[in-house]
Amino acid sequence: MGEVHTGLLQNSGEVPESTCHELLNLLSGERVRVSRRPIVHAVSPDLLTGVDCRLPSASRSRIRGAGTVLSRSSITGGRVVQGSSHTRIERAGSDRRQPWSHYLARPGVVEVLGKVKARDLADGFAEEPPPDGLDLGAISARFMDVVQTSSLLDRRTPFKIARTKLRWVAEPGEPAITFTLRSDQMRTIRLVHQGEFTPGVVDLCEDLALHDWLLTSLLVIIERARIGGTSATETAVKLAPAVDHLLHLWMPMARVDDALIPFWESLDRRPGFTRQWQSMVDRVRDQLAVRTLAFLRETGGGKAQ
Amino acid sequence: MLIFAISDKGGTGRSVTSTNIVYRHALQGNDVCYLDFDFGSPTAGAIFSVGSVARGTTRTGLHDYLLSEGSPEPHRVDVWTESDREGLRTKPPGAGRLVLLPGNEGGGELPAVDEEMLRRCVQLFSRLDEEFDLVMIDLSAGRSFTAELVLQATVRLPTVPFRWLVFHRWTRQHIIAADGLVRGGDGLLDVGARFGHDRDTLRDRIRFVRTAVLEPDAAELVGLRDEQRAWLSACDSELRELAGRHKVGRTVMLGKIPLDPILQWREQLISDEDVLASKIANAETAAAFDDLAKKIVDDNAWEGL
Ligand SMILES: Nc1ncnc2c1ncn2[C@@H]1O[C@H](COP(=O)(O)OP(=O)(O)OP(=O)(O)O)[C@@H](O)[C@H]1O
Ligand SMILES: [Mg+2]
Predict the structure, then answer these.
(1) What is the pTM of this model?
(2) CATH dotted code for B2-298
(3) What residue ranges do the domains of chain A occupy?
(4) Rg (chain A; Cα; Å)
(5) Where are the domains of chain B?
(6) Which atom from ligand 1 is nearest to the alpha carbon of B265?
(7) ipTM score here?
(8) Of the candidates B167, B231, B150, B230, which has an alpha carbon nearest to the alpha carbon of residue B14?
């Protein structure tokens, strides 16, 4: 299970690849990975956080686990930041708490001390963790903070926008995916995959989180622009940052493992991410085109035709 | 942008004025949030007419958030949906978000400032600044650890813009006290400089707001005898002279709010409906809040002196 937080990089413009490198260099010695096609995507090395806490449980049983969480930060298109954490929950070999060296040897695994039902655990994942519970979101948020508060950024963003949180759980079985909007900022994904868990599942969830954030943010910007409710100029001014900073970032499935693409495709059929995105993009473009025509007419530039 | 609201004396009108400014700023189309950092008496919920948090929250309030490591994100109240006042419960078209982060019921003043608390405060401000156009922080009256905390936090967030509003009433005692709070021993400038602010830059980020002002030519005074009016007029010019000497004169005043009978009776937001429909509030009061809500982000009003 994991949680991905996504937000706007706190800078006036897109940052170049070299700055992404510096921003993500959380651990000296380890390399930031960069892929350039179809969009520049830079990822920090994975870092470990030790946890010894209560695990989610739909029946509110007190289940304790100890182990490590894997986290990383990434920047897409020099514009969008993500903080992502996940861990695999496994049955411990013994019910006794082991020394840290034992857990450190199994990065990204939390061992359950005592009895647990996988179903109960997965059913409870969407709930807010209790104070002593496993809080992957808090870890992801801190990984984002490290980037967002860097002195390399000027913080003069073209618009203010909330982070979104995507909490996910994956289990083996008959393939299925459920995407749920829990609140303005909270989403959950429940994914059933064939065979063993692979890191590709994390990439998939990060990619879905990124595109959900783009959709959410564009919706907010369109709402703020009050199309038809205010002057065309004011609307255009409010829409412009979306064109400058967001529209080119839509690149679904760019880094998704071939075997997992059907999950993306099924969400693209329903609720239909790309369809919604496209209709909003058209709306923004139409508004700006109308504004440009009006402008030409006002300045007499349209007469030439 | 972070705005800190402070006053030397209690009962000045700091909370009523700062909540109304935030409300007006939201109506002007900005996303705003209000942080109740007056931990000794967290009453902002009452002013926003959110009964469930009228004396602070019983969930994670800001006080708990700062004091306990590992506590979840602070409780957020969406005023447009949770206010008990019918007129506030729908977001007017074009308005931005209006979010209250309450203190804790039975919280109490901060006992001291420690590193962990400071870290959490920096994290809170930085995350909210990412999301909101304006973040208003209502501090307790006078010198406090809370004021010290936010002075330290802003040193650590050099790229996050911030401003201070010092509220005072239009009386001898209040004028002298407001000056003392800023320039006196252990005042804002002293403490700010001690923690690493540049004294002159910090001074340029402070403006004064006069609350509950009765102008000598106000409609309320029409029934007064000539002798009384002459006396008031003389007092007023004496106060203006005093304010000038104490460096809280016109040039550093961001605005003044007239005395309004409805605010004398009840701490509340003044809506346009209160002015136009039920006519219980004065139009001048609403206009003064509206004006302040604009000036607060108008760089011309904040030019260095
Ligand atoms: N413009 C105004 N006209 C008339 N009364 C006002 C005005 N502004 C504030 N008041 C009243 O003054 C009193 C104190 O206001 P408020 O609670 O906002 O002060 P405060 O400075 O936040 O006090 P505290 O230090 O106790 O938090 C309240 O009863 C309020 O309604
Ligand atoms: Mg108050």
Answers:
(1) 0.96
(2) 3.40.50.300
(3) 2-165
(4) 22
(5) 2-298
(6) 31
(7) 0.93
(8) B167
